[in-house]
Design brief:
This protein is α/β, with parallel strands linked by helices and 382 residues long. The chain folds into two domains: 195 residues, Glycogen Phosphorylase B (Rossmann fold, 3-Layer(aba) Sandwich); 165 residues, Rossmann fold, CATH 3.40.50.2000. The strands form two sheets. An eight-stranded mixed β-sheet has the order 3-4-2-1-5-6-7-8, with helices on both faces.
Length: 382
């Protein structure tokens, strides 16, 4: 019997190339938040990390983030083409750069997995969610996303699922196993300042918060209508998220204006931290999630949370009273009334923060990801 093969050591200085994100740091998006927290930790473990970023989202003067190197590659700023073109160009660059492995995030970019394998590159794909279920996509885009999922799952050397529901989907649809590695959250002490909160005309602990892109599957209209039904005199509703030039965004803006809802646009950094710190309740009425990072962030601040009863939200494991039936505006309004009246969920900051810090710790997530990398990289060196 031969000697056991050891995993690559820190001194081996292996290189991972990252594809499928718009950019970091502070680029809005769940996958981007995931990457921003994961890859500095991967680099700290001794790996070389190169992130292939999209030119519209990262200034050309920014060449990296700490030890992480950026490779800026052009893409069209057009929905349906942006990710595909960037991923195709990115995998061609990977063919030249020859990383020890290519880590592709999300099922859309994963459509280039067979090409990467054909070019002799070992690939890890993280499945962040069933993106073809998002309402914004037309029939052709949904077909492409499904094709990306098939390609990524069937041709990658290893698969990562960010939730048990996604891992189960992969098992049932493709008869393949995936490593379950959740999204994580960074625990930060609450902001002491409320300057930005008050500049919006808000009173600390007296506003309802939702943080997400303004897109149909996030169901902002359900929340606005539930809020309007309450007719609260001393609470406000705050929607944080980028607005696009489409009919849904226009409808959200119109209904928000008529209901006195505050819309902030996309926020990152200290202003978003302040809004989380002083909110009275966080609501996620969405129809589609992979594993909801915004909800985890809200829980890390100790906020009461209400969420739709979709599988990804249920997986977080809130109390039964914190869930409502997807699309049921009356049930959402009733749940909000309980919190606004003080008869709902208590604010248990330390207990919730401890739970989230244990279950969704980025250091544990990094170690689990590196075990996948090492398993794949060993084969690449055989």
């Amino acid at each position: 019997m031969g000697a056991a093969r050891t995993l690559p050591r820190r001194s081996d200085n292996l290189k991972v190339m990252v594809l499928g994100i718009r950019g970091i740091p502070d680029v809005p998006g769940g996958v981007e938040t995931h990457a921003q927290n994961l890859y500095p930790r991967i680099a700290d473990k001794g790996w070389k990390v190169e992130v292939v970023v999209r030119t519209p989202f990262v200034p050309k003067e920014r060449r990296g983030l700490g030890p992480i190197r950026f490779r800026r590659i052009w893409c069209p700023r057009k929905r349906g083409l942006e990710a595909f073109v960037h991923s195709l160009l990115g995998v061609m660059y990977a063919c030249v750069a020859r990383p020890d492995l290519l880590h592709i995030h999300a099922v859309g970019p994963a459509i280039v997995t067979p090409l990467a394998r054909l070019l002799g590159i070992r690939v890890v794909v993280t499945h962040h969610g069933l993106d073809y279920e998002r309402a914004k996509w037309g029939a052709f885009a949904r077909w492409v996303l499904r094709a990306g999922e098939r390609a990524g799952m069937n041709y990658s050397n290893a698969r990562i699922a960010v939730s048990a529901a996604i891992a189960d989907h992969i098992r049932k649809r493709y008869s393949l196993e995936a490593d379950l590695i959740h999204n994580g959250v960074v625990i930060r002490p609450p902001a002491l300042s409320s300057t930005y909160v008050r500049s919006l005309g808000l009173v600390p602990q007296r506003y309802i918060l939702q943080v997400s892109r303004i897109v149909p599957e996030k169901r902002q209209l359900d929340l606005i209508r539930a809020y309007r039904a309450l007719q609260p005199t001393d609470w406000k509703l705050v929607l944080v998220g980028g607005v696009e030039a489409d009919s849904f965004s226009s409808q959200v803006q119109a209904e928000a204006a008529s209901a006195g809802v505050v819309m902030t646009g996309s926020l990152v950094g200290d202003t978003l931290h302040e809004l989380y710190s002083h909110a009275g309740v966080f609501v996620l009425p969405s129809a589609h999630e992979g594993l909801p990072i915004a909800m985890l962030e809200a829980l890390s601040y100790g906020l009461p949370v209400l969420a739709s009863d979709i599988p990804a939200n249920l997986e977080v494991g809130l109390e039964e009273s914190q869930y409502f039936t997807l699309g049921d505006v009356v049930a959402l309004s009733r749940a909000l009334r309980g919190i606004l009246d003080g008869s709902g969920i208590d604010r248990l900051i330390s207990e919730r923060s401890r739970l989230i810090s244990r279950r969704y710790d980025w250091d544990r997530i990094t170690d689990a990801t590196l075990r996948v990398y090492e398993r794949v990289a060993v084969h690449s060196r055989k």
